Amino acid sequence: MNPISFALILSGVMLNAVAQLLLKAGVRAVGHFDYSAANVLPIGIKLATQWPIIGGLSCYVISVVVWILALSRVEVSIAYPMLSLGYVVNALAAWYFFDEMMSPQRLAGIGIILIGVYVLART
At residue 73, does pLDDT exceed 90? Predict the structure, then answer.
């Protein structure tokens, strides 16, 4: 895999990971809400006007464009598994920013993912 292809894949993965984190931040700002027909419109408006959610959705749009560029250069059987790097980024960022749990099992899983991506990238 050449450096430009790898940079496109990594950019797409990072944009996708940032999108997830921004969506989480936006939902946290709104707080817990019950699912009911009466809540659909008020909660929908509240969610749609949160800047982190708008930013997250924007990151998704950009990530799709970047991903299409990556897929035009790399086999999907190589590119798609690279998305698992997003799990690593999100797990570590969620631990750091949102105080989510980071257990030994999660760290082991992250290590396995990183080994897998390394092996895949070398093919």
Answer: yes
Can you tell me the distance from the alpha carbon of 115 to that of 15, in angstroms, rounded to the nearest whole number? 22
Predicted structure pTM score: 0.85
Kindly report the length of the chain: 123
Distance, in Å, from the CA atom of 108 to the CA atom of 2, rounded to the nearest integer, reads 29
Find out whether 69 and 8 touch, Cβ atoms under 8 Å: yes
DSSP string, 26-83: HHHHH------GGGHHHHHHHHHT-HHHHHHHHHHHHHHHHHHHHHTTS-HHHHHHHT
Residues 20, 56: contact at Cβ < 8 Å? yes
CB atoms within 10 A of CB 17: 23
CB 52 within 8 A of CB 22: yes
Q: Tell me which residue range forms the domain holding 44.
A: 3-121
Closest CA to 121 of 75, 88, 90: 75
